[in-house]
Amino acid sequence: MATRRxxxxxxxxxxxxxxxxxxxxxxxxxxxxxxxxxxxAVMASRTPTYCEICFWKxxxxxxxxxxGRIKKITGNDEDQHSSGRLCPRGTGGVGMYYDEARLTRPxxxxxxxxxxxxxxxxxxxxxxxxxxxxxxxxxxxxxxSLALFNHGSGGKYFTDLFKALGSDSIAAPSFAQCRGPxxxxxxxxxxxxxxxxxxxxxxxxRCLVLIGSHIGENMHNGQVQExxxxxxxxxxxxxVDPRFSTAAGKSKYWLPVKPATDIALLLAWIHEIVYNNYxxxxxxxxxxxxxxxxxxxxxxxxxxxxxxxxxxNPNLIRETAREMANxxxxxxxxxxxxxxxxxxxxxxxxxxxxxxALLGSWGRRGGFFSLEGKDLPSYPHPExxxxxxxxxxxxxxxxxxxxxxxxxxxxxxxxPEPGRDAMIKxxxxxxxxxxxxIPDTEHTIKAIQNLDFIxxxxxxxxxxxxxxxxxxxxxxxxxxxDVLRASPHRKPAIALRMPxxxxxxxxxxxxxxxxxxxxxxxxxxxxxxxxxEEMLDWQLLKVGSSLExxxxxxxxxxxxxxxxxxxxxxxxxxxxxxxGKIELYSTSLENEGFDPMPSYTPHPEPPEGYYRLIYGRxxxxxxSRTSNNANLFDLMDENTLWVNPxxxxxxxxxxxxxxxxxxxxxxxxxxxxxxxxxxxxxWDSVYMVHGFGHRDKKLTRAYGRGASDTxxxxxxxxxxxxxxxxxxxxxxxxxxxxxxxxxxx
Amino acid sequence: xxxxxxxxxxxxxxxxxxxxACQTENDVPIGFCRDWIVETNDGTYPQLVxxxxxxxxxxxxxxxxxxxxxTGASHITDGGIVLVNKRKCIGCGACIASCPYDARYPHPxxxxxxCTFCEHRLKEGMKPACxxxxxxxxxxxxxxxDVNSDVSRVLARRKHKSLIPEAGTNPQLYFLI
Lengths: 745, 177
Prior knowledge:
The structure holds two protein chains of two kinds.
Chain A: E1 8-11, E2 43-50, E3 59-65, E4 70-75, H1 88-91, H2 94-97, E5 107-109, E6 118-120, H3 123-141, E7 146-150, H4 155-165, E8 170-171, H5 173-190, E9 207-211, H6 221-232, E10 236-240, H7 246-249, E11 253-255, H8 262-275, H9 281-287, E12 288-289, H10 291-297, H11 303-310, H12 314-327, E13 331-333, H13 345-358, H14 407-412, E14 426-430, H15 441-449, E15 453-458, H16 463-467, E16 470-473, E17 493-495, H17 510-520, H18 532-542, H19 547-553, E18 555-557, E19 582-583, H20 587-591, E20 611-616, H21 630-635, E21 640-643, H22 645-651, E22 658-663, E23 673-677, E24 685-689, H23 709-712, E25 717-718, E26 725-726, E27 731-735, H24 738-744
Parallel strand pairs in A: 7-8, 7-14, 9-10, 9-13, 10-11, 12-19, 14-15, 15-16, 20-24, 21-23
Antiparallel strand pairs in A: 2-3, 3-4, 5-6, 5-16, 17-18, 20-27, 22-23, 22-27, 25-26
Helix pairs in contact in A: 3-17, 4-17, 5-13, 8-11, 8-12, 8-13, 11-12
Chain B: E1 3-8, H1 17-26, E2 36-44, E3 47-55, H2 64-68, E4 74-76, E5 82-84, H3 94-98, E6 105-106, E7 112-113, H4 119-122, H5 129-133, E8 139-143, H6 150-157, E9 160-161, E10 173-176
Parallel strand pairs in B: 1-10
Antiparallel strand pairs in B: 1-8, 2-3, 4-5, 6-7, 9-10
């Protein structure tokens, strides 16, 4: 073993094959004194925060030593999101502050977009310039032609700015590139969505069913922790995945489903549960609408029918249906999170919701609990002006069931079409790296090239900042106040984020930027407080706390006001659907002209010599945004391409061999990716972790490391219900020789 | 007092939080580690078994690194913790070569470094950083002489193994299987 940099050692053989080599270390023959053991350094202080490295937003403490250096970040024991334990990304948040590639000065473009040529500017100049451009676009084309893409806490302030300007073209990729189908399906079924963090009662469940959800690789902290509790409690885990995921390795049943056939499996389970009377009769009779319709709908969807589609043994389908029924109502067919796969995703998630309804798990212990959040008064400001041109107007009549704006609709609307000009003319992009987030990178860039103006606000240089006209450097979450975290959970709670250090260089918090722009655009009335902490204190006093108290405790939790998080026996409940019931048969989908109950439709299969591209998460990274963090880069510095040994043999691929990828549309990967030969993936698919293959050279560590799945995803299958971008209908082949790569390009 | 740790391979997801928490707690330089993740895979699709382990120094009762250290820098302290006195360490690397578990690394400042079970935290009544941070709570730590310690209790009720027992080092890192 040449280096100890490889923290994750993967052995293809049994347990004996560990760490055999001892040679190769650079040994030091001299140098006796290693200096003071820093571990013994006195902790000078700790300040509360909630993490911004992912959307889970765990609360914790930032520890600084006597010199003010950020030493470590730990969890807050009172926090329901983390139970006092941050995940590797949160623990490694230190590396975000110390990343030498950080943006620390406002930048203004000097050459054409994408050329990465910027000059440093003063805040005054950068803000004046943005305000002037924003005003010009709004006056010429209307406020609706300004689009905001945002992800993360600071998006709130720019959202307020946009609303003040009269635009509702405000999208987070977390809807149409991620959770949207699930939220839409659960709203259609139960009248509410699972929330974030989700209301899954995993710690008390007796049976957890994961459909392509790879908890443990996706590091959704609370869920990872609760899945571990469930393992301790002897719960049955059933994992449906074409890949032997980490969760599959912890499961009693792994169903190695053929990709793109999940709906057939779900329908067969529904069939089994309905026709064997496994469903919770009392619950279904009292709360559900459309059982008879569902029953006749699934009559033909037997396990034998599904076997021919999914390749899952019918007996295994029956056995797992019985396992779920035995655990009912303490069973969770997990809604998942990133669920934009094949374009019929809302319907697949409807099948998931229907299964949960039949088993009576919604509102039951070990199933789904009811969330309760703390109502915080919003700071006073004038009414937002009426939106004259809404994002919905770009596609009249489409995506009416989407309860959030659809990011890809805004991208599409930025590209002129024959006979019509582009409807979006300027973008503000806050904290989301669109070229590696929205599928089909070239399409996104085409949209950017058509804009009059684009601003990016970020902590790090990213592909998106390379395309921006003005780049505003935000300080990290470790250096700023933000709005209180008040996400609903088992109990209502709030968490404070406050700065542990002064902002690095000239970086500034997003609130300050949005307010400065508001002042320049005549919208100062919407930003009443000069400093965010004044607003926080005002808000906290209204709920019986104070900034002073929160600085000491970080997290404050209240008892529930709405009673038990579970339905009482026979309790009368009105659900927020058209019928007031849990809709097995969806009237809202029917009203919009969609199938009221889910059906299986076959999806294209890979052509000869091509493999379906499946992608997922690694626990050490969040999307593409953490790849340059020194601490996290150290844990995982590139992604690999999982290839089944049969396929590797056919192509003559060996472990660690770099290959380029080419997709069905002849798109070539910018960079090679190393092959990982493993039995853990099917022979008709390959797998990689999302978020690598950065093109921006300013990312000192991450540039050129691994490949970008997003670049390979050019076949986007849009979900007609809510506009989600299905990304799993892409097929890749291997280019094993650099000369072949050059020839192919 | 005999400190020991048990790692539940049925719960560990290999997230590496133990690695980064150790690095920040103990100022382990980027590029090195005192603990790490090992994943082993067996079988052919779809009959597969994966085992994931968080590994570190085994704090062996019969520690070859201590026996071979020419300066006495490597030593066993209270509770059986194997430590390196870096002021005595000349960085010769004999201990690194002798360790069957590959648990030591040469610190760039010229001494050999390794897991200390976070001795400085134990003195404060805290658990090692890796144990405190682990999201799956798959790490159990404590005193084997105390039958009520977390580690004694879990070892009493769960099947377990240690690594390379044939080396005769009597390791104090256990893996629940």
